TrEMBL record:
Its cofactor is FAD. Residues 22-330 form the Glucose-methanol-choline oxidoreductase N-terminal domain. Belongs to the GMC oxidoreductase family. This is GMC oxidoreductase. FAD binds at V99, N107, A108, M109, V110, V250. It comes from Cladorrhinum samala. GO terms for molecular function: flavin adenine dinucleotide binding; oxidoreductase activity, acting on CH-OH group of donors.
Length: 608
């Protein structure tokens, strides 16, 4: 392991911040938190304090070098679900980043936007629709800087893109790893053979089909590009108005007397210690991720009244939706054995020391080779619509439409939360029907596992506090696969993966699904397998403080202002109404850029 040397920023002492006053205080230095802090402090007259539960990373190889990926350095400790009723009551570890940069510091660097239908549908659910693909696109472009791969390499590896949807001057760097494994070409051709055509550009608002995965790394160094570098290191030397306090947890938001306007926050060292206060003259912005944002709100008296009453927390704003509507993109790892797999493949870095040493040398000298690829994945992936997954897709949809949405939620669900679920469920079922929106991804890195992801489940869970201790983790209940539609969709996706592996292109490798997958053939056997094997999370937990009208169980308005209080917004992935067909990173950077403009407009702060 790399040696632990003190990060240069760790000079901040907790006491110095006690009773300090800032214009804005941001809880959580993840993608949203740091993007906002950067944009707000562009005005030298605006002061921002970001309080972050985790430390600064110290540039360790497992964070920076894709092929040496070691995300566990900064996993949030002891996150585990309650027994999952749809998954044989398994209690399953959940993952979130606890580090400056949040998920961006440890994520798998996959960079794929959602579909046009996602942002359009988010907008159509609002009272004042101000969200759509067209409204997001300028912010995608503002947030990012795409470096094109070598033209010959791109042509050889089916890498295509549309420059009109690729940003060229933003802080987030991304490119394509200059490496491919031989088996990847067979898999690509097999995908084409089973009706998954090549996608011209997966970032253009429709990613159904097969494509090479863009990766958030700096093409100059082939190292991770993440929020700490893009939105703090890049500007911090010149910004005395931009402060980060690491290794401290916001415990709650505090309000002025009875007027329900934000006054500031209380916080304490993550390792435990005294609670102190910092004051915000303009706004407090919660950006603590899908598990911790609802926890902070609930501890602050913003949440479902019955839950707050249970813990004797004074109700500031009774919002039944806080902590409800939890969603993720469940994953299924399908193990294979091969009689003649192509080599090298994604397992070779681990299994073949000579190859690993060669590739390491190639990375050091030319910034090429297997170390430019995140070690847990390959380079190609396919987005799958429900129509592409199964000819029975209309039956699945009509069965889901015939069901009572209330049956998918706990019996004591608040009526507004149920109304919101009913509305978003119909939007998602329309996406299942349209033949364009991806409901799943399938991926084969070229090693001993394929991955099948469900991107748009109908099951909904919750995140609720279990005590008033600010250091205690909340109860995480994904309720994965409690809606029977999800089992049917997952079964179709697994069968699509099987169809792909049954093509002559893949059969040359002699693949066989390993036990217990091989034995599961009938619908009932596959359902039983899924209950035993699904991982409820891809660390994409979202939607627990949803941007929806209050009558639909919403927590924040279309401007991401928390209902019923003044001066409080939610910036992180918790604000999403439902999952996109992409991976979250791109949407989070762009959404935070968009929110920064809204906040600046509200406060008359100058805009770049
Ligand atoms: C291991 C892993 C792999 C992933 N792979 C991918 C991928 O390949 N592609 C992709 O697009 N997405 C991926 N994701 C998901 C993506 O990184 C997240 O969805 C994204 O970072 C969410 O951004 P955010 O701003 O909402 O919150 P985050 O980036 O999660 O930031 C929240 C921050 O708030 C801090 N915090 C929490 N509570 C408190 C508190 N009380 N006080 C102060 N600070 C607090 C946390 O420590 C964290 O730093 C992955 C995530 C993980 C963890």
């Amino acid at each position: 392991a790399p040696s632990r040397r003190a990060p240069k920023h760790a000079t901040i002492v907790n006491r110095q911040w006690s009773n300090a006053t800032y214009d804005f205080i941001i809880a959580g230095a993840g993608i949203a938190g740091l993007t906002l802090a950067d944009r707000l402090t562009e005005d030298p007259n605006i002061s921002v304090l970001v309080i972050e539960a985790g430390p600064f990373d110290w540039g360790q190889e497992g964070i920076l070098v894709p092929g040496s990926y070691q995300p566990w350095w900064f996993f949030w400790p002891n996150l585990v679900t309650v027994p999952q009723e749809g998954l044989n009551n398994r209690e399953i570890g959940a993952i979130a980043g606890q580090v400056v940069g949040g998920g961006s510091t440890i994520n798998a660097m996959v960079y794929v936007r959602g579909d046009t239908s996602d942002y359009d549908d988010w907008g159509s659910l609002q009272e004042k629709p101000n969200m759509s693909w067209q409204k997001m696109l300028p912010y995608f472009l503002k947030s990012e800087n795409f470096t094109a791969p070598d033209a010959r390499f791109a042509a050889q590896n089916n890498i295509t893109w549309n420059p009109a949807v690729r940003g060229s001057s933003g802080p987030l760097q991304y490119t394509y790893p200059p490496h491919s494994y031989p088996g990847g070409e067979n898999w690509w051709n097999a995908a084409n053979a089973v009706g998954l055509p090549a996608v011209e550009d997966p970032l253009a608002g429709n990613k159904a089909g097969v494509f090479a995965m863009p990766s958030v790394m700096d093409a100059r160094t082939m190292t991770r590009s993440y929020a700490k570098i893009n939105h703090y290191d890049r500007v911090s030397q010149a910004r005395p108005n931009y402060h980060i306090l690491p290794s401290n947890m916001v415990s709650r938001v505090i309000f002025k007397g009875n007027c329900k306007t934000v006054k500031g926050v209380e916080y304490l060292p993550t390792a435990g210690g005294d609670v102190v206060t910092a004051f915000a003259t303009k706004e407090v912005i919660i950006a603590a991720g899908g598990f911790n944002t609802p926890k902070i709100l609930q501890l602050s008296g913003v949440g479902p009244k019955p839950l707050l009453d249970k813990f004797g927390i004074k109700v500031i704003s009774n919002l039944p939706g806080v902590g409800q509507n939890l969603q993720d993109q469940p994953t299924l790892t399908v193990p294979y054995t091969f009689t003649a797999n192509a080599e090298p493949n994604t397992d070779s870095l681990v299994n073949n020391a000579t190859y690993a040493a060669e590739q390491r040398a190639l990375y050091e000298t030319e910034k090429k080779g297997a170390f430019t690829v995140i070690s847990t994945l390959g380079t190609n992936i396919a987005g799958v619509t429900l129509k592409a997954a199964t000819p029975d897709f209309l039956d699945i949809i009509s069965t889901a439409r015939a069901a009572n949405p209330a049956d998918s939620l706990p019996a004591d669900v608040d009526p507004t939360v149920l109304a919101g679920y009913t509305a978003q469920r119909e939007a998602i079922l329309s996406q299942y029907e349209n033949g364009k929106s991806s409901v799943g991804n399938i991926h084969w890195g070229t090693g001993n596992n394929a991955l099948v992801y469900h991107l748009k489940p109908l099951s909904r869970g919750s995140v609720n506090i279990v005590s008033t201790d600010p250091l205690a983790n909340p109860a995480i209940d994904f309720r994965t696969a409690t809606d029977p539609t999800d089992q049917a969709v997952y079964t179709a996706l697994l069968r699509k993966n099987r169809e792909l592996f049954a093509t002559p292109e893949m059969q040359v490798f002699g693949p066989s699904e390993a036990s217990p997958f091989a034995e599961a053939q009938t619908d009932e056997e596959i359902y039983a397998l899924l209950r035993d094997q699904i991982n409820p999370s891809n660390a994409h937990q979202c939607c627990t403080a949803a941007m929806l009208p209050r009558s639909l169980g919403g927590v924040v308005s279309a401007e991401q202002k928390v209902y019923g209080v003044g001066g409080l917004r939610v910036a992180d992935i918790s604000f999403w109404p439902f999952q996109t067909g992409g991976s979250p990173t791109g949407t989070m950077y762009a959404a935070a850029e968009r929110l920064a403009d809204m906040i600046k407009a509200d406060h008359g702060i100058s805009r770049n």
